[in-house]
Amino acid sequence: MNSLFFMYLTNGIVMGIIFALSALGVSLIVGIMNVINFAHGELYIFAGYISYILSVKLGISFYFAIPIAILTIFIIGILIEESLIKPTYGNDMYSLIITFILSIVLQNFALLVFGPFPNKPPNWISGATNMFGLFRYGNQRLVSCLAAIGIIIIVFLLIKKTWFGKTIRAVSQDRETASLMGIDTSKVNMLSFGLGCAIAGAAGVVLAPIFPVTPLAGVEISLIAFIILVIGGMGSLWGCIIGGLIIGIVQSFGAAYISSGYKDIFGFIILILVLFIRPSGLFGRKAL
Amino acid sequence: MLEVQNIDIYRGETQILWDVSFRINQKEIVAILGANGAGKSTLIASILGLLHPVSGKIIFRENDISKISSHAITRMGIACVPEGRHIFQDMTVLENLEIGAYSKRARPSLNKNIKWVFDLFPIMNERKNQLGGTLSGGEQQMLAIGRALMSKPDLLLLDELSLGLAPKITIDLLKTIETLRDENTTILLVEQNVEMALNHCDRSYILETGKISIEGTAQELMSNDHIRKAYMGI
To answer: What are phi and psi of A127, to 5 degrees?
Structure first.
């Protein structure tokens, strides 16, 4: 036990929470609509690009750039749902293929418009903090982590406490009965797809100062999000948080004590272990 | 209150209901009775807008609702206790009731209606913070009825109330239903258990292989030889 151990642990937890946030949006959409959104990572990088353009090119303060970026992704999400996902209702395979193609289209769009080089919005905060006299940790990462926790809490409150949240849960548990309660299920689909995308966007703006966005950066985020989704259990929000933390911590320790070259493989090893022991995931139930 | 006029209903390619007509008057308990596969659930689904008739009309308070989607129909004042109850398993009893009051017409009187449901079924008050899935079958049925009542419906549809319940519980629930009728809710009861239903309804229609074969008051049907033989085993 030395200060390095605590640094790896801190880093693992911070990354885990950030991973959890990036998986939350996919999980929400799977839980409600049974649609797997492969374009999740691309929406994430688009939010990063939008916050980059607003803050670097247009000189808007990040206090405004962040909500604008998230709102834009929310609207894009709703447009995607209305135009591409709605016609596929009742056939999960079609929506899977469509979002997969959408992700490739968006990647190439980003390559065409923003170029292949990494872009990065300015840090919100500079410097580092001395953690308990053990090590120094970057302030931007700490602030991003706090922002991620804040967003996760907002999403949980939205789902557990509001009317909109209750309708989402009702639809995810029993669509037909929900419509018999007077709930317009296609409107709930539209809004929850938008919400899921907006969470991806939120993850994008929170992470872009730490991990600069490139046209292909979304692939890695998507991959980690899907690992977390399966580990935690499809559609389970708590599963996302726990799954995210597990992946974050294991990656951090694995990279430190085994080899950073194998960083990405640890997630898959855990995935295989979880699938052996609990094929439906740690919190595997089809409800929020 | 509700008038079904000559509807033909298909599920996919198969015609399930043939030229079905019936009416329900205000403050009446009407039972649609029939064996398994007679088309009872299909009939409920078409009133609720889950299926749309190919021909014919469904008139609810002077409006043709046969082409309206189900959430809009609920908002007009028709509520349903679905077959197999379908309560939201991972939501608490209270949340289940709140969701029942989702429609705008019911929202303002939410608290009053919750109190009303708790008066009808005091056990729901004791269980209000329990998850719906942890209730017993009879309690789930009470919750499903309570949830439907939360929208303060003018017309309440009950699909297979007796399914999976002990006879005593079913009879208690049917008595509650009679109280509801006396408080001015109109009720459509769809049942396999013919004898039990006839004891608690005002009028009834018998549905056989997708067609209405017999109709009459409860007393008339109870003394009908065909019904006594085919459905009551007497």
So the answer is: 85, -175
- Overall fold of domain A2-126+137-277: ABC transporter involved in vitamin B12 uptake, BtuC (1.10.3470)
At a CB cut-off of 8 Å and minimum separation 6, what does A173 contact? A286, A287, B88, B89, B90, B91
Please tell me whether residue B49 adopts helix, strand or coil conformation. coil
**Residue B108 belongs to a domain with what CATH number?**
3.40.50.300
In chain B, how many domains are there? 1
- Per-residue pLDDT band at A287 (split at 50, 70, 90): very low
Domain containing B78 equals: 2-231
Which residue in A27, A5, A12 sits closest to A145, CA to CA?
Answer: A12
pTM above 0.80, yes or no: yes
Domain residue spans of chain A: 2-126+137-277
Gyration radius from chain B CA atoms = 17
Q: Which of A12, A36, A48 is nearest to A200 (CA)?
A: A48
What is the predicted ipTM? Answer: 0.86
Decide if B202 contacts B30 (C-beta within 8 A). yes
- What are the structure tokens assigned to A118, written together? 């990494």
Residues A175-234: pLDDT tens digits? 999 999 999 999 999 999 999 999 999 999 988 888 888 999 889 889 999 999 999 888
Please check whether residue A220 touches B, CB under 8 A. Answer: no
Name which of B91, B97, B102 to mutate to probe chain A: the one with the most chain A Cβ atoms within 10 A of its Cβ: B102
Q: How many other C-beta atoms can be found within 10 angstroms of the C-beta atom of residue B126?
A: 12
Is the CB of A183 inside 8 Å of chain B's CB atoms?
yes
